[in-house]
Amino acid sequence: FQISTKEPLNPIKQDVKKGKLRFVANVFPHKGYIWNYGAIPQTWEDPGHKDENTGCCGDNDPIDVCEIGSKVCSRGEVIKVKVLGTLALIDEGETDWKVIAINVEDPEADSYNDIEDVRRMKPGYLEATVDWFRRYKVPDGKPENQFAFNGDFKGKDFALDVIKGTHEHWKALITKKTDGGGISCTNLTVSDSPFCCSQDCAKATVEAAPPCKAASPIPPEVDKWFYYQKN
């Protein structure tokens, strides 16, 4: 499920690739996602901006977050997190930052203040995260993903700077100082945005959406394991 950036009010919907609902593959030894996977609102990885650290432009999405707490969150749940670090994924030639964070309400949150705390408290977790992102698209016939900094994680301060930069890009987008292409910037809360709409307008948009139908059955291949030799 992803934030649907091209639809009004950006609903959370299941991603579709080549006309089919998208599911994440189980690439041994990882079953599905190994963290709570989400995004930071009011951020945008600008596809017209070449990142000085990676040499690649942004992926045209909000910045992604891997939340490593003990609770499995509900889909669409909004939580407050403590930023710990970041990984610079290069996904099909685009910069795709993965921020590592922990829920501030997690029982162990006070023990985590930077990326090295993750390495100390959860041995092997960061290495598994790199492995997951490197190989998760291989079952779709795509090559392994690459990383900036040789796949090394950057710490909290670096991650916060990345988040601040993508927030500035979002502000330029939402105030029409940058052309977002097909992105829908309709919103209810940014009063100085030319895309700001009224509650009545937003309500009408939601009510105009087609009603939900019965869920389709989950394809059997969703539970399939994929094995292959690491490069």
Gist of the model:
Keywords: Acetylation, Hydrolase, Magnesium, Metal-binding. By secondary structure, the chain is α+β, with helices and mostly antiparallel strands.
Roughly how much helix do the residues carry, as a percent range?
10-25%
CATH architecture level-2 label of one domain: Alpha-Beta Complex
Estimate what percentage of residues fall within beta strands. 15-25%
CATH topology title of one domain: Inorganic Pyrophosphatase
Q: Would you spell out the secondary-structure blueprint of this structure?
A:
Layout: E1 2-3, E2 12-13, E3 16-17, E4 20-21, E5 26-27, E6 36-39, E7 64-67, E8 81-91, E9 94-103, H1 115-121, H2 125-135, E10 146-147, E11 154-155, H3 156-174, H4 199-208, E12 225-226
Commentary on this structure:
By secondary structure, the protein is α+β, with helices and mostly antiparallel strands. The protein has a domain of 152 residues: Inorganic Pyrophosphatase (Alpha-Beta Complex). 20% of the residues lie in helices and 19% in strands. It is built from four helices and twelve strands; from the N terminus they run E-E-E-E-E-E-E-E-E-H-H-E-E-H-H-E. The strands form four sheets. Strands 6, 7, 8, 9, 10 and 11 form a six-stranded mixed sheet that branches. It is globular. The mean pLDDT is 95.
Task: Give a quick set of tags describing it.
magnesium ion binding, alpha+beta, 231 residues, two-stranded antiparallel ribbon, Inorganic Pyrophosphatase
